[in-house]
Specification:
This protein is about 35% helix and about 10% strand. It is α+β, with helices and mostly antiparallel strands. GO terms for molecular function: ATP binding; protein serine/threonine kinase activity.
Amino acid sequence: MRLCAVFSVEKLHLQFDVIKAATDNFLLGGTLADGQAIAVKRLASPSGQGIREFKSEACLAAKLQHKNLVKVHGFCLDGEEKLLVYEYKQGSPFEVGNSARQRIVMGIARGLQYLHEDSRFEMIHRDLKPSNILLDGEMNPKIADFGMAKLFEADQTQGNTMASGYMAPEYASTGNFSVKSDVFSFGVLLLEIVSGRRNSVTDLNIEDENLLDHAWKCWNDGTGLELVDPNLGGNFSIPEIERYIHIGLLCVQEDAARRPAIASILSMLSSQSAVLPSLTAPPAFPYKRNLPQALSASNAHFTEVFTNVNGR
């Protein structure tokens, strides 16, 4: 298999009983033989995923190496069981100070740039959300679940993985996606990190605006600083935070063609003098879903166990 030229199938294939015992039947923490704490993602049957395709996707994910991507240790096939094994990282990109948040934003953007432009294979994440942004001990972000979209495709279209607050409108309404779909999700994350609040769109009866509508209203009213997380206590540069809000709103524009590429986003985040494009409105929630039957019919399901191991 050409996809596994560097990482052989034998090296990546881990034994089911070893993983099961290490995680106490997928309930508690575990480590590999080298002491690395692991996270396990389990695809339950029936998944509709062929063994060869599963191996290829797992091998491809393992080949993608970047400091802002969670390392894929391997996979396991045992009867109907299909497991993916990752390195374990923990932490929230919201419970830190301003300088750490800046580092997190830049790290996420660099990880996406690697997936979209710098790796041998263009990779669209399709499920970028807070639970897929993990932090190491130095608050460096690592993107998880990249390259796994095909393995969990049915779950994503059914909303079990891709939370609606992070899903680009074109993906939610038609099932069509591109790198600009990831850019939309990044924009939501950026606005969440600035504001310290989630883009909740699950309760349609509440009077509060969702985060994107609120950010858009504040921006148009000239009160963008009202969006900033009060927990930062004013410890931020006003021009910088306003630039972050502007870039976040650029990313969540309804028209995918108007969203910048990730390389442009990195340039705008890094340069105080960059001239930022004008803005158009984000999409209205809730989306009207018109998914093709082929995308919504499968009953695949997965559970995930993030292990928490002391003494790393």
